[in-house]
Amino acid sequence: MRFVRSITTLRRLAGSRPHLSRPFGSAAAILAPSESPSVAEAPIFEYLEGFPRPDPKHSETILAVPRAGPKKIVAAKERKAGRVPSILFEQEKGEEGGNKRLISVRTNQIRKLVNHLGYSFFLSRLFDLEVRPDFDSDEVIEKVRVLPRKLHLEAGTEALLNVTFLRAPSHALLKVDVPLVFRGDDVSPGLRKGACLNTIKRTVKCLCPADIVPPYIDVDLSELDIDQKIIIGDLKVHPALQILRSKDEPVCKIGGIRGA
């Protein structure tokens, strides 16, 4: 059970560091009930210096309203009214159940966030989400922190068809496709010689405690020469995160000199 082994690894890391101290809660209890820690042993996860953290200036509360049902005719009416049909659910039971709530969000707000952050970065960013009876109401039915899980676009037009959100309380363990940001290309020995950068991966799937989901992972190219590569095992991430890929998988490689 790969997921259970991941939880065990995170607990071992948390137990060896005083700054990691929050329980994994229901998600961990369902997957590994015999290992679930007591509330008194709750570890807390915090961002560490030297690792990327979300920029607070990009924080925004996503507003939502209840949706009448999953039928196509309802979804079509929502899109025509400038709303995106959406689903809010729990990770442990997925879209099949898990406290699922049908909602709609404003098309303009989601489009603005995606255009501003970028597609992959939108899907690795936590947001506050408020469900209200209608968008002009001050009454809040539910307020929860969420991770955008899926974003469906129409082929050709890229119109927003639907968005899936995952509840992200502090105790949750989230599988996130974290974007890779390549840095140091201006000083890379291989690239300065005229070689090409062959990018093999743009994102990497990670198992993340909800409080420390990274907005991206840095990939340092500054010392890479011709025919050298960076693999998954070379990536530096927060010690409480686990990359769910083989350490030997390549991320990028410096190819031969152009025109040689």
Structural class computed from helices and strand pairing: alpha+beta
Oligomer: single chain
Largest sheet: 6 strands, mixed, barrel
Estimated radius of gyration? 21 Å
Q: What are the segments in which pLDDT stays under 50 over at least 5 consecutive residues?
A: 1-42
Mean pLDDT: 83
Helix content: 10-25%
E-strand count: 13
| Total number of helices | 6
The run of helices and strands is HHEHEEHHEEEEHEEEEEE
Provide the β-strand percentage band: 25-35%
Order of strands across the widest beta sheet?
1-3-2-6-5-4
End-to-end gap: 48 Å
Shape: elongated
Explain this structure to me?
The chain contains six helices and 13 strands. With about 260 residues, the protein is α+β, with helices and mostly antiparallel strands. A six-stranded mixed beta barrel has the order 1-3-2-6-5-4. Mean pLDDT is about 85; it is low at about 1-40. Keywords: Ribonucleoprotein, Ribosomal protein, RNA-binding, rRNA-binding. It comes from Acorus calamus.
Q: How is the topology of this model organized?
A:
Blueprint: H1 2-15, H2 25-31, E1 61-66, H3 72-80, E2 83-89, E3 101-106, H4 107-117, H5 119-122, E4 127-131, E5 142-153, E6 160-167, E7 173-183, H6 189-192, E8 195-199, E9 203-209, E10 217-220, E11 229-231, E12 242-243, E13 250-257
Parallel strand pairs: 1-4, 2-6, 7-10
Antiparallel strand pairs: 1-3, 2-3, 4-5, 5-6, 7-9, 8-13, 9-12, 11-13
List keywords for this structure.
single chain, 260 residues, alpha+beta, 6-stranded mixed beta barrel, 4-stranded mixed sheet, disordered N terminus, Rbsml_bL25/Gln-tRNA_synth_N, ribonucleoprotein, rRNA-binding
